[in-house]
Amino acid sequence: MINLRCEGHDAEYEISNIINLFTPYIQDELQLETHYQKPKVYAKLKDGDLLLNEAIYPVKEIGDPLADKKALKQALKKAVYMTLTDYTNRKMPWGILTGIRPTKLVHELLEEGLNDEVIDAHLKAEYLVSANKRILMREVAKEELAILRQNKPEEISLYIGIPFCPTRCVYCSFTAYSLEKCEAQVEPYLEALFKEITFVAEAKKGVPIRSLYIGGGTPTSLNEDQLLCLLEHVKSSFDLSEVEEYTIEAGRPDTITKDKLRIMKEQGVGRISINPQSMNQKTLDTIGRRHGVEDIKRVFAEARALGHDCINMDMILGLPGETVADVAYTLDELEKLGPENITVHTMAIKRASRLKEELMAGEEAYALTEGEKIQQMLELCEERMARMGLKPYYMYRQKNMLGNFENVGYAAPGTQCVYNIEIMEEKESIIALGAGAITKMVYQNGERIDRIPNVKSLKDYIERIDEMIERKREGFLKYR
Ligand code: SF4
Q1: Any idea where the Radical SAM core domain is (predicted)?
Q2: Which CATH topology does 2-88 take?
Q3: pLDDT over 90 for what percent of the chain?
Q4: Ligand 1 center to residue 163 CA distance, Å?
Q5: Which residue's CA is the nearest one to ligand 1's atom 5?
Q6: Is there an atom of ligand 1 within 6 Å of 216 CB?
Q7: pLDDT by residue (tens digit) across 234-282?
Q8: What confidence tens digit (pLDDT) does each residue in 454-470 have?
Q9: How many C-beta atoms surround the C-beta of residue 443 within 10 A?
């Protein structure tokens, strides 16, 4: 544990984020004294009165108050990082970069007209990012920019949330209700959702839609009739003739039937997700999935037979009890299937997950995988994706992510998911419908973003649907 003291600056929050990266590796109770005395910052790590080590960094001030404040924080983060790196003998893959969108920084540097070499040197010197992650950042940023440059003014994307799943996975922190408990709510939910769809379609009549994403939860938790009804309502409400991408996150194989796959295909869905997370049966059992590895393979084959030619598969690194060999096995199995997209998630222990509760209660079955192992798993994924001809095209990070790593989407050329990039980079408005969905109205190429949230609770959403619609009406009018 580290007790922090700050003098002459107000960067406590930023420094705490750096300390958090090293916390798992520090057992002793230590003091970290940081102070700013123009033109330098100092970080001293102490055990009582004993000075363990010290780092001093110059602050590059240019006379602009905002830029100087940023430079001061940057110097403090570096000094603290170096002190803790020396003490723990560990470097962090992302250096002092703690934000969730690392590629935003590369976009800015590319827009300044800087070349790869200069960008690489900047990320290394200013943010202490490792060589691997610098390459990843540049590759992803370029893929993203190629998609974002095709955004048209006035264009929007749509998100529709179906917050039901057959059971709740141990790591879940999404708006997802177990069907076992909430089946009776499905019809009232759809009724409310249809009302919201009708309103948005009317309010945005004539506005071009670039991508449409139906996510959750697991949309295929709906039965065949409900799914057909939803997709028909979407089709008759919006003009989908110009939509570049229409995705449904089918997600869990235990919810997918041949009929649902056929309905999706007939209704114009062009991209689906079938998410194994792991191809190891013991892991699926541990995390609360009620389906087998064979179900994943069967559903994938059925989807292909029905003409689904853009399939994403999600996998998660750091699942309870998984080793690097288990991940290698999952990758072998995915390679045999040959999906167009694979999204590699690193386990994030979020506030709302059952996993977090069980970890706190000391459940050994869910023991965390260490950072080094995750790093090896990530490297293995990079290698194997390249072998499968898949390139990284989008990336994000979450707080509390194991080992301070990232989630990366890989895609075969020409199959990158537009929606994933739009939601991450916030350059186009996304109108989001359903419980817990948050609309983001984006203006001036992302300079201004206004959020219109829907209530998260299923009950509230159903009961207060008119209020949700009113929120949207006001939001749309305000920023027309
Ligand atoms: S399938 Fe996804 S949304 Fe559903 S419970 Fe599992 S993690 Fe949550």
Answers
A1: 150-387
A2: Double Stranded RNA Binding Domain (3.30.160)
A3: 72
A4: 9
A5: 168
A6: yes
A7: 999 999 999 999 999 998 898 999 999 999 999 999 999 999 999 999 9
A8: 999 999 999 999 999 99
A9: 11
CA of 380 to the centre of ligand 1 (A): 25
Fold of 156-474: pyruvate-formate lyase- activating enzyme (3.80.30)
With 0-12 CB in 10 A as exposed, 13-18 as middle and 19+ as buried, what is 113? exposed
The residues spanned by each domain of the chain are 2-88, 102-148, 156-474
DSSP class of residue 143? Answer: H
The CA 19 to ligand 1 mean position distance, Å, reads: 31
CA gap 431, 209 in Å, rounded: 10
Residue 252 Cβ contacting ligand 1 at under 6 Å:
yes
Q: What b/e sequence results for 24-43 when a residue is b if at least 16 CB atoms lie within 10 Å of its CB, and e otherwise?
A: eeeeeebbbbbbbeeeebbb
Report the complex ipTM: 0.98
Tens of pLDDT, residues 31-49: 999 999 989 999 999 999 9
Pocket test for ligand 1, best of 164, 168, 181, 350 (most atoms within 8 A of CB): 168
**Token duo for residue 42:** 């100092």
Note whether 2-88 and 156-474 share their fold. Answer: no
Residue labelled with tokens 């922190």 = 173
